[in-house]
């Protein structure tokens, strides 16, 4: 089942709505223009993971979009309501969505959605994933000079991300790593790229440069904190495709699927390390309790 | 008022729905992922203009998105229902929208929306518009090599287009002409670029190369047909910004606003020709009766 809770000034803890019935206006700019933002987080035993990181990124996305959204406490109360309304579950997916609302109304539409996770994430964590490198079309410097491209915002305009995933699946792959037109590794359509290298006993975890126009990953942020405490060296790109092939392990990391080990890129197998995946997943989970 | 008509196998002529009430599921991928396509057309005295061109482009967008949508006759009947349900009006805006539907359901959500046009289009036709050149981030060859970027599809993921318009308005401009990262003129966020040059009595109308990743404009297509019959020479780019400054007139053309004369680019005035605007608007209207 899906629980919906709308943020509503008349309902302090959010207004619970029937998810089996239409709840959105057909003229909402969220649907007519993909004009809105979102976050997806995992709740474990009723507690959202990385809540403050997700709320901070939601606020940053809103600012990039000139969207005035409800303050963090209103989200926290609505999330609590959604989790209380859902039958107890070990894991739930909690989505926060805000649109620019109905054209002309000047009021955003904001809601929380809680539902059970699909099975594919857990499976891909176990079996690993095959990815394709696909050109995102942008060069790695455009994000800084062209803020209207919204590269640092998590917007509802995900048609390209979904098309890239469909393209990969048609070729028999599971997921995508986007590259920039100048040959840098960027991110997955719904995930952050992480690579590990172990040289002379020194373990290094590297993620692409934020300035290259990737979304700041909340999971990468949580993991870097605890990995540093555990003795890992940390690196921020730039990364190029050869870095992926030369790494000791590569993952796509995200809030629901967690660390998904990449086992091939463009059909070429790369090393997978169950040991490193287990170590880093534990550190990620530890870093996600905030 | 807004009239909504959903395409529905149980209602041959479409199902009329109350636009003042929520009609969409909150889990529709149109809103959660901007995953869908649309068209916007003008109906004059109850008759849609360029209907077959809009339906053909909708079908092309659907194909680019791997989206199976209702066939043209179903759209035609739903449009007729929407226009019959709306109080008579000289001009109405008719929108066609299709989303990938609720996640997992496998059925697209498709509807027609009819409403009165805003006043700004008519005003901008009269007064002309000030535009900014903004980098779209893509080079002009990416559309052909990266179909997952959906550059030829009119998707619901319009957040960047809307952000570019907001950016322009904050700088005091009215609209935007996107350029490619390799310096070509592309298109407006919701319009096609057209330039006219008159040399030694030869009148030439030029639009950017389709292959550079712009959306094929239905208005440009209609106008080119009748303009050729009226003796105009036609050209397809590539165009660069200097071509805009050297032209005898520049327009952003679209289905509702029609020919909007550009009177300045990046704050620099360019020639405006009331005579050419009137001549080409008449040819556009003539070409739009299909």
Describe the structure.
Two copies of one chain form a homodimer. With 290 residues, chain A is an alpha+beta fold. Chain A folds into two domains: 116 residues, Aminotransferase class 4, branched-chain amino acid transferase, N-terminal domain (D-amino Acid Aminotransferase, Chain A, domain 1, 2-Layer Sandwich); 167 residues, D-amino Acid Aminotransferase, subunit A, domain 2 (D-amino Acid Aminotransferase, Chain A, domain 2, Alpha-Beta Barrel), CATH 3.20.10. Chain A contains nine helices and 14 strands. In chain A, the strands form two sheets. In chain A, strands 7, 8, 9, 10, 11, 12, 13 and 14 form an eight-stranded mixed beta sheet that branches. In chain A, strands 2-1-6-5-3-4 form a six-stranded antiparallel beta sheet. In chain A, helix 7 packs across helix 9. Chain A is globular, with a radius of gyration of 19 Å. Chain A starts with a strand and ends with a helix. The model of chain A has no long low-confidence stretch (mean pLDDT 96). At the A-B interface, helix 1, strand 5 and helix 6 of A face helix 1, strand 5 and helix 6 of B.
